[in-house]
Every structure is written in structure tokens, then in C-alpha cells.
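Observation: inputs received (chain + flavin-adenine dinucleotide).
Thought: call the complex predictor directly.
Action: predict_structure
Action Input:
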Amino acid sequence: MEKAKIAVIGAGPAGIAVGVEARVKGISPVVIFEKGETFCDTIQRLYRPGKRVDAVFRKMKVEPLGVCSFETESKEEFLQRMEKYIKEYQLDIRYKKEINALEKTDGGYRLRAGSEWVVEAPLVVIAIGIFGKPRKPDYPIPKEVRDRVFFEATERPEEGRVLVVGGGDTAAETACFLCETCEVYLSYRRPKFFRINPVNLENLEKKVQEGRVKLLMNTDIDHLEPDPEGVKVVFKDGREMVFERIYYCLGGSTPAGFLRSIGVEFADGRPKIDRYYETNLPGVFLAGDIALEKGSIMAAFNTAHIVVERILEKYGELVR
Ligand SMILES: Cc1cc2nc3c(=O)[nH]c(=O)nc-3n(C[C@H](O)[C@H](O)[C@H](O)COP(=O)(O)OP(=O)(O)OC[C@H]3O[C@@H](n4cnc5c(N)ncnc54)[C@H](O)[C@@H]3O)c2cc1C
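Observation:
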């Protein structure tokens, strides 16, 4: 597997600034994974054309600590600035790579995009912002059943009959997680799994053999209806089944869901980090909006500077 000194997740202002700060300090290789097709995906998508990008945002004046900084300018000028950073500091950004798992290894951590492990690094900086969303089905969820429909399984219910929908690694992991306490059915549109990694597939097959997960292959949901027992699922072939809860695993996740799934601890609804933004996982840092109570671009740049300084101070022997 490819090895890097620092693996960065997200190429928004924070992730790019981590790359810039690391380059200035001579740390190499640093690899940045970005789920979008281009850098600063949040800004490209959510800012309207011509929008003024305020250097003092929400009345917060933040003095620059590191290399990256800007004065109030238009969206287009700001994006040009970020593109210039990427070129000038020769940042290695891998686009269309959504990181969906992180696992401890002897050499640090390995990161997964889709069902492929893409990199191993002793240090990881998570700069995924706060705007991520899980993918939703294309039929409406009736309002009467919304409290029974979930897009990630951060906790296990004590019991019940549940349906997991999806055919990727998250669906397999969710089914295996929930079947410890629940009667689990897994609905997938195709006749065979082809996106699940071998470890997850083996785990899932074991649970299926033990009768703890029941597979509903080749099933496509038409719509949901409220039912006195929970949610009635009406499949396209006319079959109907009732579940207490439904978990959609169709791709994407909330940033908090991602952090919880990799083992980052939370306190009072916020990730637990020290003053240098390091999480409870040694060598795994947060940067940008995800690390801050009130985020802004300048604040994101500064978190990147603090994180890289801290990496040099605490983990210098791993990156030199
Ligand atoms: C409409 C709007 C207007 C704003 N105006 C201003 C302003 O004028 N001035 C200001 O200072 N701030 C403004 N902000 C806030 C500012 O945009 C954020 O503070 C800033 O973008 C945070 O940077 P970030 O890098 O932490 O996160 P983001 O910019 O959200 O970047 C995160 C990146 O990570 C990628 N990503 C997410 N998950 C994954 C994954 N699992 N794998 C790989 N990549 C992933 C995303 O695609 C994205 O490119 C505004 C925000 C909004 C929504």
C-alpha cells in the first residue's frame, strides 16, 4: 500500500493549508484525499457566483498564524488563490476519493476509499468540514416514520427487527454491528455484492450463515408507509415487510458520524480534542470547521498551522 508521512482527508481551505504548511516545513510525502471532483468543494458548491468571501466572518477577526491568508475578495478570486497555493506548493491531491474508514496499523493508520485501502500514514489530519450529508433514497420518507429511519448507526438499539439498505462496505458493517442485538435484514438491488471488501464480506457471510443477518438480494424498495408496528416497506415486486427501524447506507455520511465510526470520542456533542486539535486517537488531528465551534476560512488556515507545528514538536521523528 502507498505510504505517506501525513494523510489529509479533505481539500477545503483547512486541508490545503495543512498541505502548504507541511511543504514549507519540508514534510514529504503528504497526500490529500478529496471526495469531490475539485478542491474546495464546499465553497465551489455552496457559495453563489460572485459572492464576497469575507476575511472577517461572523464578526470574528482572526490574525494569520501561518502561510495561508487572504483579504476579502470574490468567490472566484478566492478559488484562484487556493489554486495558486496548490500549484506553488505542488500539493498532491487525489480527487474523487471519499475516505470512509480509518484503521490502526503497526505503522500508524490506513485509510479506505470505497472498498480500497488507499494509503498508510503515521499521522492523519481530518479536514472534512461540517457540510457532508448521507445520500438519501429517491422516494420520499413519510413524516410519520421519520423517527424510525436512520442514515448511520452510531448506536445499537436494544432489540427489534431492522432493515439495512445498501450493498457497500457501510451496509455490511452496519448489518454486522446491528445484528449483535437486532434481527437484521439486508436489502440490496443487485443479485451479488461486488463493492464490499474481502474482510467485510467474510464477516457478513459469517453472520448470514449464523442466521443473524438475512439477505434480501435483488430487492428494490418502491416506497415506505407508516404501520402500527413500525415502517411498512413495499418492494417493487409487490412484497411487503414491516420493520421497527430502517438504516440507509447509500453512501456519504455526516462528519460526526464519520468521526464516531473511526473511534473519535465525543463530549457534549463535540469531538474531544486537545488544544492542538489532536483527538483521542494518537496522531489523528482535526483541522478547520470540524475542529472549531465557530468556523471561518481564516480560522481553518490557522488550525492547519497549529496542527503541523504540533506534529513537528510531538511526532518530529515520524516526519523528518
Ligand atoms: C454559504 C456560506 C458562506 C460562507 N461565507 C464565508 C465567508 O465569507 N468567510 C469565511 O471565512 N467563511 C465563510 N463560510 C465558512 C467557510 O466556508 C468554512 O469555514 C470553510 O470552508 C471551512 O473550511 P474546511 O476546510 O474546514 O471545510 P470545507 O470547506 O467544508 O472543506 C471540506 C472538504 O472536505 C471534503 N470532504 C468531506 N468529507 C470527505 C471525505 N470523507 N473524504 C474526502 N474528502 C472529504 C469536502 O468535499 C470539502 O472539499 C461560509 C460558509 C457557507 C456555507
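Thought: report the result.
Final Answer: The chain has seven helices and 20 strands. The domain at 6-132+254-319 is CATH 3.50.50.60 (FAD/NAD(P)-binding domain).
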